[in-house]
Amino acid sequence: MPLPTENLRPDAATAVPESRQRGLMTLLLVANASMYAVYMGVGSVLLPTQVEAIDAHRKVVLLGLIGGVSSEFATACNPVAGALSDRSGRRNPWVLGGALASLAGLTLLGSVRTALLVGIAWCLVQATMNVYQAAVTAIVPDRIPPSRRGTASALVGLALPVGGTLGVLIASRSADHLPAGYLALGLVTAAAAALLTALCRDVPRDGQGAAPAPAPSWRRRAAAFLSALSSRDFRWAFIGRALMVLGYFSVVGYQLYILDDHIALPKGLRAADAMAVLTPVSMAAMAVSTLVGGLLSDRWNRRKVFVGVSAALAGVVMVVPVVAPTWPGMLVFSTLNGLAFGCFMAVDTAVVTLVLPRAEDAARDLGVLNIANAGPQIVAPFVASAVVTGLGGYTPLFLFGGALSLLGALAILPIRGVR
């Protein structure tokens, strides 16, 4: 049986005055937006462009291999960094250190010219960005009371449309000058980290300054690390997130190639320029659904219906590019997909923070949950590449992504601790 969410000790979060909570949420929006600018700008435009320039004939396979291997580093580093920041009792050093290391990695990535070196450099960026992400993500359960989690998640959830749009616009404008694009995205993250750490001081956490406990064995560490999955509600939230993310990134990771090889674009419109149009459309829809979903879920004190319906919608809209592989079809798809994914991520994040087993292990357990974010991104490039090359194009890929999203909608039903 899951531990009751009342054991999350919300008093630590409510100690922060409401005015400071609003300022903190603004800083978190900026910090998370910079992170998504890197993920979307590099993953959607710069990396596919770089891979295609290296080997156009094997671009699908190479992108799948590089994306899959690099995501393993993300999966490994996120929960480990979260556990270390829990143990240190501080977030800011991990935020700033991860951002500066990512700046160095992105600068390296923009300078390499072989598939092997691109893969190595992107692995380094994924690892360091997940150090940054683990610490930033843990600030919400550290500082925001449960009654404000839906609103906080909605505001922080705006980071995806804001950051994603910024990242893709920067990347699309610099697609012919890759080093400049990589450097610009790295500087955005470094500046956001400097702003957050300068204006948001670390709050002392329980046990900070006490004598360190004897180091447990690796077996005990692994058991403690995965202990959150013994909570029934947390486990189903993990499964639902993993399915939704896998379905989403199986398609989004190949969108540049989809526009090149599957969609009938208007004459004179390049795939990179089409991305610069589709991304703001999708992200604007995502911003609307993020705000509306998060705020209404707080007002009605209902989370599951928002998560389930948005995941189901994400599955259904995957049919649009199948029946209408045209530019108008992609505009419709991007709008509806943005609405669905934005609402899902905003409200599902609130669900997760409400089913965390223990507040003192928040960063570690959120790191476990981030396996559901990063883990499917390991599988997605490999599987998507196999689907495209083995089943004859991008139509099976859309159907595959849609089926996974529908399964993610069903996974929310068994959660009992959240309405």
TrEMBL record:
<dbReference type="InterPro" id="IPR020846">
    <property type="entry name" value="MFS_dom"/>
</dbReference>
<feature type="transmembrane region" description="Helical">
    <location>
        <begin position="178"/>
        <end position="199"/>
    </location>
</feature>
<feature type="domain" description="Major facilitator superfamily (MFS) profile">
    <location>
        <begin position="25"/>
        <end position="419"/>
    </location>
</feature>
<feature type="transmembrane region" description="Helical">
    <location>
        <begin position="277"/>
        <end position="296"/>
    </location>
</feature>
<dbReference type="GO" id="GO:0022857">
    <property type="term" value="F:transmembrane transporter activity"/>
</dbReference>
<keyword id="KW-0472">Membrane</keyword>
<dbReference type="InterPro" id="IPR011701">
    <property type="entry name" value="MFS"/>
</dbReference>
<feature type="transmembrane region" description="Helical">
    <location>
        <begin position="27"/>
        <end position="48"/>
    </location>
</feature>
<feature type="transmembrane region" description="Helical">
    <location>
        <begin position="397"/>
        <end position="415"/>
    </location>
</feature>
<protein>
    <recommendedName>
        <fullName>Major facilitator superfamily (MFS) profile domain-containing protein</fullName>
    </recommendedName>
</protein>
<dbReference type="InterPro" id="IPR036259">
    <property type="entry name" value="MFS_trans_sf"/>
</dbReference>
<feature type="transmembrane region" description="Helical">
    <location>
        <begin position="152"/>
        <end position="172"/>
    </location>
</feature>
<dbReference type="GO" id="GO:0005886">
    <property type="term" value="C:plasma membrane"/>
</dbReference>
<feature type="transmembrane region" description="Helical">
    <location>
        <begin position="330"/>
        <end position="356"/>
    </location>
</feature>
<keyword id="KW-1133">Transmembrane helix</keyword>
<feature type="transmembrane region" description="Helical">
    <location>
        <begin position="305"/>
        <end position="324"/>
    </location>
</feature>
<feature type="transmembrane region" description="Helical">
    <location>
        <begin position="60"/>
        <end position="81"/>
    </location>
</feature>
<feature type="transmembrane region" description="Helical">
    <location>
        <begin position="368"/>
        <end position="391"/>
    </location>
</feature>
<feature type="transmembrane region" description="Helical">
    <location>
        <begin position="238"/>
        <end position="257"/>
    </location>
</feature>
<dbReference type="Pfam" id="PF07690">
    <property type="entry name" value="MFS_1"/>
</dbReference>
<keyword id="KW-0812">Transmembrane</keyword>
